[in-house]
Structure formats: C-alpha cells, structure tokens
Design a protein that fits this description.
It is built from 18 helices and 10 strands. The protein is of the alpha/beta class and 396 residues long. The strands form 2 sheets. Strands 3-4-5-6-7-8-9-10 form an 8-stranded parallel beta barrel. Strands 1-2 form a two-stranded antiparallel ribbon. Bound molecules: iron/sulfur cluster (2 copies). One iron/sulfur cluster binds next to α14.
Amino acid sequence: MIYKTFQDLKLSSLGFGTMRLPCLEDGSIDQAEVDRMVDLAMQQGINYFDTAYPYHGGNSEIAIGKSLSRYPRESWYLADKFPGHQNVHGVKPMMPADVFEDQLKKCGVEYFDFYLLHNVNENSMAYYCNPENHCLDYFLEQKAKGRIRHLGFSCHAGPEALKQFLDQYGDKLEFCQIQLNYLDWTMQRADEKCRILKEAGLPVWVMESVRGGKLASFPAETEARMKALRPDESIAAWAFRWLQTVPQPTVSLSGMSSSAQMVDNLRTFSELKPLNEEEIALLQEIARDLTRAIPCTGCRYCCAGCPIQLDIPNLMSMANDLMLGGTSINTMMRYTALGDGHRADSCIACGQCREACPQKIDVPAQMEHLVELVSKQKTWEEVCRERAEAAAKASK
Ligand code: SF4
Ligand code: SF4
C-alpha cells in the first residue's frame, strides 16, 4: 500500500468509500461481504474509511461502524459528513447537533477522525456560509472537544465558488474532497480547483475517481486498445494510474462494492505506475468519444456579446456533465442555483455566440439540447423526498 502523510498521520492512499456497499436481493446491505471487505482492507493496509449520513438510506454508517468495531479503534480512521446541502431544499431541515450525535451513535464511535461539510456547492453555500445557522461554529466546537480530529469539506462547486468559500472559511478547514478523474480534469475544471486548493494550502482528497463506475468499462474495441498497452491492468486501474500523474491527492476514495473490486484496487495501489504520454493521449481520446463532449475550451469569446449575459462555457460544461450522467444530481443543483434568467431556457437563439466561437460550436442548438437534458433529470426536491422515504422505510 502506498501511504501519504497528512500532518502527523500516515494515511493509505486508497480509501474505502461506502456509498456503494454490496447489497442483498432485498436491497439491504450485505453485512457479511462488508466484513470480508473490511478484513481484506485491514490486512492489506487500507486505514481510511469514508461514510456519510445519506448513504444507503442512512445504513452505511451502521454497517461500516459495526464492521470496523471488530478492530482496535486506533487502527483505522473514519470520516463522516454533515449533509448541510440538504438543508437548502430539504424536506426537513437538519440541525448539526442532532445529526452529529446520531452519527456517533450509528457508527459506534466517540469521535470521528475526519469530518466534512458535505457537498459545498453554489447552492448549499447559502446554508453553510450563513452564520445564523451555526453550522461551522458547531463543528469547530466539536473539534475543540476532541470529537472531531480533522475538519474539512467536500466540494462540487465550480472553481469560482470554491475560491469564494475558501476566502471565507479556508483558514478553519484542513482538507478538501473534490471530484477528480481524467474526465473531470477539464470537464468539471478539476485542474483549476487543484490549483486553487494548492494556493490555499489545503490537501486534496479524491472522490469519484472512476466516476461511479463509468470509467471502469468501455466497448470491447476500446478496452482492447487499453489492454494492448497495459495487459496486466484492469480498466478501472487506468483511472487510478492517471491519478498517479497528479501530484496532489492524499487519499483517493473508491466506492467498492465487492471483494473482487477491492483486490483489484489493492493491486493498483501497491505501487506507483503512472501513465505515460501515449497512455494519457489514449484516455483523452476515449473520454471524448465517451461523452460526445461539446468541445468548449472555456475561452469565453462568446460571452461579451450575449444579450442575456449567459455564462455560456459554464452551461456547456453542465451539458457535458449531464450527457455523461453518473453525478447528474450535483450538476442539477448547480444548474438550479444559476437562478431564473441565467439558465439555458433564457437563450433567445440570436446566434451571436456561434459566430464568435473559435471551436465552431452551435451554441444555440446546444442550449436547446441542455434544456431537453434538464427536463429529463430529477429535481433536487424529488431526490430529497426519495431519500427521506428510503430512510423512513429502512428504519422500520
Ligand atoms: S444564442 Fe443564446 S447564448 Fe448565444 S449569444 Fe444569443 S442568447 Fe446568448
Ligand atoms: S467561444 Fe466557444 S469554446 Fe469559447 S467559451 Fe464560448 S462556446 Fe466555449
């Protein structure tokens, strides 16, 4: 196992994410398989485990806490998160103290090694940054009491909002978890986020390294080209080998669903074998084909002349994101947060941007496509309602 230093700790660079735990036919978590995976993790040197309040309708915390309790408390690090992002449109606003006490109980621990404000984005910042909510203050108090050892945040915001959040709270937080993989390096501007975090002196934790499994399998012909270059590696391993070309990540989370996936990841994380230039070029080609991406470079040449003042590159990036799927709910939250008059449906199809675009992108047509994509997505309110129903069902 490759280890990374964080302050006075030695963290395994592979973390066990528990959002996609193995399940039985009735949809409940397969605790026996979770135990087998935790045993394997502990034997092979994984010491970082990550859960969150909404995962598996609230049952991920119970499952991982139960499994880890079979090992000495000082032999593993547990991360949990406060779902403040659900307090923006949540059906039932959650208070930090209520959630935190519940989480400690569910996980069966007296403290969390790592604790995160969950999903800071353009939408949830309204909650997190409002001092009247006493959210950050509360968690800083828990840290002072030793019930949280390290406080950070996970972030799905664009670089501008990330910077704004860091300007306000960066000195109180110790790490930031972002979506980082070879697709989102440019598509979600993760390259810019890494630069901003480096400037702020915050280490990077990685989530969605294989984009919810989307980067773990491709059509046979594509996989054959990859196998020709790396015959002994799995397709998922390529995503982690790409991460090894980025110097910043401390912990890279993988939401593993079986012992077989864990065995494969453990093999990958046993040594550094970063991709070479030829392999990176192949991944870029695959990513383009996979997403049928709009080739927007973010140059903003089209923006000044837009009579509606739309943030065109941002909307193009969201369209790319929705076409790929996987993390579409975060994109939808960002899209909603743009507000009336700033979304794709406000485009009047004047065509100015098409003329200005050096990439010859038919922006008005893409705006229409984005409106159609958005109409097929679930709203955040619908997701909250579904999660609340799932949690209620699970607690019966
Ligand atoms: S076509 Fe739409 S996006 Fe392009 S400049 Fe006109 S209003 Fe703006
Ligand atoms: S001009 Fe074209 S490439 Fe540049 S930001 Fe606008 S849409 Fe994207």
